[in-house]
Every structure is written in C-alpha cells, then in structure tokens.
Amino acid sequence: MSSRAPQDTGHGAQRLWSVDEHLADVLAAIRPLEPIELQLLDAQGCVLVEDVTVPVALPPFDNSSMDGYAVRTADVQGASEEFPAVLTVIGDVAAGSGDLPTVGPGQAARIMTGAPLPPGAEAVVPVEWTDGGSGGGAAAGMAPASEAPEGAGGEVRVHRAAEARAHVRSRGSDVQAGDLALAAGTVLGPPQIALLAAVGRGTVRVRPRPRVVVLSTGSELVQPGESLAAGTIYDSNSFALAAAARDAGAISYRVGAVADDAETLRSAIEDQLIRADLLVTTGGVSVGAYDVVKEALSSVATAEDEPDGGRMDFRKLAMQPGKPQGFGTIGPDHTPLLALPGNPVSSYVSFELFVRPAIRALMGLADVNRPSVRAVLKADEALGSPAGRRQFLRGKYDAESGTVSPVGGSGSHLIAALAHADSLMVVPEDVTSVEPGSELEVVLLG
Question: What is the pTM of this model?
C-alpha cells in the first residue's frame, strides 16, 4: 500500500511548477530544425522528412544465392551420387556479368553468388552438390577463376536434383518498384542507410542532428586527468550531459567548467551561440551567493522590450531531485537554453526529463520521451518520498519478472548508484511512502 499526502500547492514567494508544466513550457518554445539535403553518411542519425519510394525493384534481376552451377531442372532430375547427371560447362557467370551465355539442354554455367541467372537456366545447383568439374567426389568449393580457367569448361557431375527456382533470388523479392522504402519521420541508422544506397539514393532530405553545447559551472571543478587541490572535485557533469546529448541523437560539444564569475560565464555562452542549436548549463541555478548562471542570465529574463535579447526564467519545480531549473532563449536567434542544477544526479535526471525531449523535438520526432512501463517494487523496506514532490529514484528493472529494485539512496550526489541504474522509479506528488509489492511507473533509460 502507498501513503498519500496533499499536493503542495506551491504558494509563497515563488510558485512551484509541476514537472509536466515545465516540460510543456520547454517544448512549446522548441521548433524542429529546418530540413537540409545531405549525403548518405552525413545523414546517419538524422530524421527523414520525405517518403522515399523504390525506383527499381530489389534485386533488379533474378540472381543466384549460391556459388554453383546454373542448370535446367530436366537435366538434373533424378541425379544422385551413384548416377550423377553429367553436364557440359559452357562458361562462367560472375557477379556484374552483362553478356550472359544461354544454357541449353545438357549444359550448365558456373555461377557465383549474386550473379544474374543466365537465359535458359531454371535453378542453381550448389557446388557442394557436384564434383566441381574435377571428375571426383563432392567438391568443397570452386577453384579461383584466375588459377583454374579451365573450370569454366569441360564437364560437371551433379549429384542431386534441383527444383525450379532453387537457390534463385527472384527479381523484386526484396522490394518492388514503387514500394515505400522509408517513411518520413524515420531515424536513419545503418540499415536504413544501406537501403537508401541500395535503391540508388546518393542524398536524402533530413532534419540535421541538433548541435548541443554543454557548459558546467563552478570554480571547484577540475578536469579529469589533472591533480585535485584542496576543496576541488572532478567535473563529471559536462561529460555526462555531453554523452547523454550524443545518445539522444545530437552532435554535442563539451565546453567544460567555467569559473564562478558572471561575466566570464556570460562571455563563454555568447562565444558558443554560433555553433549551438541548444545550450545546456549545469550548476549555479539555486539560491546561493555563487549561483552565477542566475546572475549571468537573469538580466535577460527582464529584457522583454529587447527583441534580440531573449528571455530567461528561473523557477522551482515540484520534483526531487532537480528542484531549481532555468529555461529560456538567448541571443539574436533566440537559441534555447536549459539551466540544470549542479548535483550530478539532479543534473542527469533533469537532462532525461527536459533536455532529451527538447533534443528529440529539434530533430522533428513525434515521440520525444523515454519509454515507460509499470513494474512492481522489489525492496526490503518502503521507499519514502516528500509530500508534494514527484520523486525520481534510480532503479534496476527486470523485464522478465516485471519488477524494479532501488539502486543506492535518494541523495542527489550519489553518482556511483546512477552508473548502475537502468531506469528511474517515479513516485507521484501525492505519495509519501511506497511499500514493497506496490506498482510504480518506471522510465527506462537504456
């Protein structure tokens, strides 16, 4: 059973936004990137904006699925090892062959995988069903044409019969001309790139992958590989968020740590605008004396009469972790900027809930959220959750049993637990305790 508490209405100096309200506000300001024409490999990871139809059938001709001999079925009917069919070999048919020999009664042509079926032939007999022209027992394979040109002539003994169309890939058996190859909205991965190439498309019209710039703030941050001085820690947030942006489908740029100085941060952000479709900062959005993101960008939030200035809003959300959040647009192109809290777990959870959907919206995808499932809590004790807050706890999901187990505690600094989690357990705002055996919503991260 779950204990329920009244929802925190957020009355006071600053109202609390719900998770859903904040996400809706973010997505309302996002416009999909304009489509461009790209070469196939450059389009990998992009979203197709046009239906692609097949101009020619695949395969475009009947071809062999085996290395062997192209034959007429009547000539090998009843063939066996004791009584093989003996055929005259009239030549080779290699992949790419244009001038094809005609296979007549009592004849065969050596044929390679992918080569067009020559006129007169009705089936392909694998080379393992023959003596390979050696006059001996079953062949293991064909000798290379360059080493044994005589293999294209002479005789071959066939030890097994073949039905019509045996080992023949029919023209259009993959797709027919005029078929829909890929629909608009498809994300282009390697198989889709292969299909586009196979139907002859050299370029394709897509929405480009968004360029996401990640900046972390804090004078205490040191780059991995450097020595730690007293009071310093390694910068993990910029690496985590840059990797998460790439995982979401973006091209990510990691700027690294910017010192706790408002002018330095403002300058760094302005420098990055030229290569950003979306900016993400982490740290400096709470109520401390050194929360420089608010200081650097809050003046923009009041610049409603300055059309080139953009607008920023810093707010508190009814969630844990990740209560302080900032969102707005900056610069002459009104580039979206999401300002996330600095604690590692708060930062990553905020990315999954707000930044990832923004990236997917920029790509033009209809479904921007991670998939979620219902799962039964498997734990030794009840999970507590603050009243009026939607809590996101790290979990390990077992699809086979339909259960989810907590990983680590609820602290927003517990990055080691995050590394072993594959999901987020969602505790609603009006629930303060979740008993083992209760059902929860689980957001799948993998």
Answer: 0.81
